Amino acid sequence: xxxxxxxxxxxxxxxxxxxxxxxxxxxxxxxxxxxxxxxxxxxxxxxxxxxxxxxxxxxxxxxxxxxxxxxxxxxxxxxxxxxxxxxxxxxxxxxxxxxxxxxxxxxxxxxxxxxxxxxxxxxxxxxxxxxxxxxxxxxxxxxxxxxxxxxxxxxxxxxxxxxxxxxxxxxxxxxxxxxxxxxxxxxxxxxxxxxxxxxxxxxxxxx
Length: 207
Fold this sequence. Notes:
Elements: H1 2-34, E1 63-64, H2 73-79, E2 90-92, E3 111-117, E4 120-121, E5 130-131, E6 143-149, E7 166-183, E8 187-205
Antiparallel strand pairs: 1-4, 2-7, 3-6, 4-5, 7-8
């Protein structure tokens, strides 16, 4: 009887390292299974470097109506001392098409109309921002009429049903304005900036 018990004790001692090794391998396998594997590289979202220092609502736009803390109004007040005539923004109309919205027009395209001072503009989405010259001290405020579509691509003239396979949609219309901006330390220049002027109703053939 003692011989049998002794034999069982020896067998257990021999099996213990094997069981421990299996347990350790199981732990290692568990750690591998829990690891996060990225099969493809993570996509890096590219941002426009020119938009880093502008308010969120101005990012991706060609104009900004928010006056930030770094706006150099004091500088413009000094620059305009002694001047009597100030250039106001000029809307460049296409002689073949007047895109300026009419408040009396009704086409079911919801829009937001505002008359706001411009503090920054640029000649294109990929162009650097320019400070618009404003001087409250000299009563010189470059303010323009802006009209933005609230539901671009939404249906319009909804009182009429689809006719002969055509559908309607709202589209943001823009026009160019000439705006006086800062140039260098003590100079100014006029640049063209594309601004929203109305929200129009278009039609297209349904597919």
